[in-house]
Amino acid sequence: MKLGDRDIRGLLVDLDGVLYVDRQPLPGAAAKVAALKASGLPHCYVTNTTTRPVATLAAELHELGFAIDAQAILSAPMAARNYLRQRGSPCCLLVLNETVKADFGEFRESGTDAQAVVIGDIGEAWTYGLLNQVFRLVMNGAELIALHRNRYWQADGGLKLDIGAFVAGLEYATGRTATIIGKPRREFFEAALQQIGVAAGEAAMIGDDIESDVKGAQAMGILGVLVRTGKYREAQLLRSGLTPDLVLDSFADLPVGA
Ligand SMILES: [Mg+2]
To answer: Looking at the predicted structure, is the pLDDT value of residue 97 above 70?
Structure first.
């Protein structure tokens, strides 16, 4: 497939804001997912979504009409589990919702002597008490691990504040830098490329987040493609000072199966 002036042999595709917004499929997205699958072009769905385990996410995608299997998805919580294993499975404080926590059952949990704090989306469960607990653990030497540090995402009623704000606040107060697990972490993109067996220079990343998706991919030599759906705002793109390699109106405009 030709994208811009590059021959693309593999695709990395973001989910939220690219295929759907607030669990509503975007026009033409399901047909394009099917066309992509039929084309045989290696691809992997890479998501910073931290509210559902991959199996649940795949089941929901099927309900929305997307023919996407769990094996074709790489998620930030999966990558976090691998990261913790590599770190010798430290005792953790898991700031994750209950469904996702179930996938972290192998790690011992403690609110007082955790050596790692793992932060994901917990919606409105944030409180001063919880933030202070995380703050104290990190001050005592625990590693601050964030599944991502996205600033915001597009929901039904407009943009919504994402966990990046809490992560940045904790970094500010503790003077420590969080380990970011999902996009734009280099290792996350590397794992996705490995999964599809394609080199960075022959891959494209398609997403609605100018920083996590586009900038992160470009830093790896992956073609960065921005879609004008989801959280995309022209003003934000201009303010970012970043230049996507290509901008598409939507995922449905991807030249595959056309
Ligand atoms: Mg997105």
So the answer is: yes
